[in-house]
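#struct-help
A.M.: can someone run this one for me? Single chain, 292 residues.
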Amino acid sequence: MFRNLTIRKRIMAILAIVYVISLSLAVGGGYYVLRQDTIRESNEKTEIFSAAMSSSAAYLGSAIRPKVLEYLPETYFPEATVGIFMLTTIAKTVQDQYPEYIYRIASPNPLNPENLANEWEEQTIKKFETGEMESWRGFVERDGKEYYAVATPMSAGQNCIWCHDTPEVAHPKMVEQYGTRSGYGYTLGDVVGARIVYVPTDVALAQAKKKLAYFAGGFSLFFLLALIAVDRIIVSSVVRPIENIVAVAEDISRGKMDREFEVKSNDEIKALADAFKRMKVSLAKAMDILRK
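D.P.: on it. Structure tokens below:
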């Protein structure tokens, strides 16, 4: 491949190959690092979102619900007594400001049809039920978009049973609102659903790719400047001295014995020039002998 190339072209070709390989490794490694940073950032956002929602549910259960049931025991007031209702309402309010974020209370047997688990959510909940997983986090596709999601199991507590035991036990107004076809038969301690936070990754990944593009452009510009610098150095310190040696050697071979090998460096090219000088001296002596 390099046999018929000049030294200059050979070195440029080698540097070009080094550039392609190093750029590929740098871009691949950079993308991996930036993607890991995207995962870390997405994980932080889901943790904050999930913690805020869990804290809201805990406050409702420990402070608000007991007071409402104490003062209004017969009143159907889900906004202050049903944790899932409150969480889904808060989630919708958050989504009004951040529509790309999704908070889901998903269940294969929900009271509210809006909380019916999709295929992936139902499979995840089943793994929670069997004890195969205690939580799940990672990338998942939803409605054609990639999200980073964190899912945690939701078990039926004592506060859930009074709504989800049987239609006869539940508040009549709740039964009237949601019907009797779904959302009942919960058993204390069973996994009945999952809390899932979806955070979009397209914006973060787009920013990561933009950074990667800037890096690749900067790397290419740096390598181009280095290539030009190396080319100038090679031409001045290697190519031209060798070309001079070749030209002088050709002239001497044609009988121009007054030509001299002149090399200013003190390297292998200087050693080559000295060897040619000795060869010239030997050639001159041999020619003198032949003339005599």
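A.M.: thanks! DSSP finds eight helices and four strands in the chain.
D.P.: also worth noting: The mean pLDDT is 80.
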